[in-house]
Amino acid sequence: MDENYIYGERTGLQLVRMAIELTCPAGVLPSEDAVNCLYGPLPVNEGEALAKAIIETVERLTRDSC
């Protein structure tokens, strides 16, 4: 796989991570090291953790608004 592609992929994931860390509740997104241990080191694994953090945030907001 092209290294530039992977670099761009990781850069995009880092931007999403930063947005989640700034806006979502604490604790919904594990650290990068924890993601590597829990899910794996690939970009798709980081994407899975980010998606779960977004889902958890939406669920918390939905529960709190009822």
> Helix and strand string, N-terminal first?
HHH
> Distance between the terminal alpha carbons, to the nearest Å?
47 Å
What value does the Rg take, in angstroms? 13 Å
In percent, how helical is the residue content?
over 70%
Number of helical segments with 4 or more residues: 3
Q: Quick one: biggest sheet? A: none
> What would you call the structural class?
mainly alpha
Taking all residues together, what is the mean pLDDT?
90
Strand coverage percent: under 5%
User: Spans of 5+ residues with little confidence (pLDDT < 50)?
Assistant: none
Work out the number of β strands.
0
Summarize this entry quickly:
This protein is mainly α and 66 residues long. Helices cover 77% and strands 0% of the residues.
Structure notes:
It is built from three helices and no strands. The protein has 66 residues and is mainly alpha-helical. Helix 1 (3-23) packs parallel to helix 3 (43-65). It is elongated. The model has no long low-confidence stretch (mean pLDDT 90).
